[in-house]
Amino acid sequence: MATVNLGRIKFVWQGAYNGATAYVADDVVSYNGSSYICILASTGNLPTNATYWQQMSSAGTNGTNGTDLGTTLTTQGDIVYRSASGLARLGAGTNGQVLTTAGAGANPSWSTVSSDYVLLATVNSTSGASSISIDGYFSATYKNYMLIGVVTDNGASGGWLQVRFLRSGSVVTSSNYSGSGASAYGGSSIASQSTTNDTFFRINQLGNSAERSSSFTMTIYNPLGTTKWKQVSYYGWGHDGNSVGIHGTAGGGALQDSTSAISGINFYDSNGSSSLQMDIKLYGIK
Predict the structure, then answer these.
(1) What is the tens place of the pLDDT at every residue in 43-98?
(2) Considering its fold, how many domains does the chain have in total?
(3) Is 187 left (phi over 0), alpha (psi -120 to 50) or beta?
(4) Is residue 215 part of a domain?
């Protein structure tokens, strides 16, 4: 009469293959991601040896179509996508780029975000100066520019924030500026500056104590153009020396006698303070 081993009527899972273990028929092991069943007792024979083992399941590939992602993705930042022929690698883009798609039937790609209003430069002056410039950022990419500025310190001079243009990095000081504007406080108004042939134009008054700052916005029109006089418009707020407090100024200025391109803007204190500190941001507008 046949003898039945009640412990061998089902597969016996033995875990990962170990060359030092004695295996008998119906033992099942894992090896390199696949599983094998022992068909003949042995020790030290790899599961790939068909005399002693039969494969029960096969390890899949590291991809959906037979492509090994370990070789497809080679560099930190890589991503994988499905091309027309299979899995493919898209290398990392450059800093600030975004992933875009052209829709069905096209591969993804990296692209630079396009904006009509782009930050081009920041000036953060934290040590006193007699004048502060932002220069060299005008280009053919943008026709017009927006400048936002805050005077964080002026040595409490109580003067005016005055502006000149830069041409090829040099301050334009000739008497060819004109401007208009009004400064209001206490219900009255006064002229913010002379209206023609000055060596500067004014934006707003500076504080006469440490806690009084001033801020402004300025639009610069086509600074690289060579057919029109250079023109800006501005709106500023500042604190004068009066107890009323806020002193507001609105106006504009133009470089009248030249159509030459300008390269930047220069700011200084009318009272000649060498303690001027400013935060300035320049934006290009397409």
Answers:
(1) 999 999 999 999 998 876 555 555 567 677 778 888 888 888 888 888 888 887 88
(2) 3
(3) left
(4) yes
Task: Identify the three-state secondary structure at position 43.
Answer: strand
The two three-digit tokens of residue 232, written as one number = 């800006």
E strands present in 83-136: 87-90, 98-100, 109-111, 117-124, 131-135
Q: What's the pTM value of the predicted model, to 2 decimals? A: 0.59
Same domain, yes or no, for 245 and 188?
yes
Cα separation values, 77 from 96, 111, 130, Å: 13, 15, 47
Find, among 174, 136, 180, 186, the residue nearest to 257 by Cα: 174
- 243-279: string of b/e by CB count within 10 Å (b at 16+)? eeeebbbbbbbbbeeeeeebbbbbbbbbeebeebbbb
- Structural domain boundaries enclosing 255: 117-285
Same domain, 90 and 122: no
User: Is the CB of residue 240 less than 8 Å from the CB of residue 105?
Assistant: no
Same domain, 171 and 237: yes
Please state the rounded mean pLDDT for residues 256-280.
90
Question: What CATH number does residue 35 fall under?
Answer: 2.10.10.20
Let me know whether 82 and 132 are in one domain: no
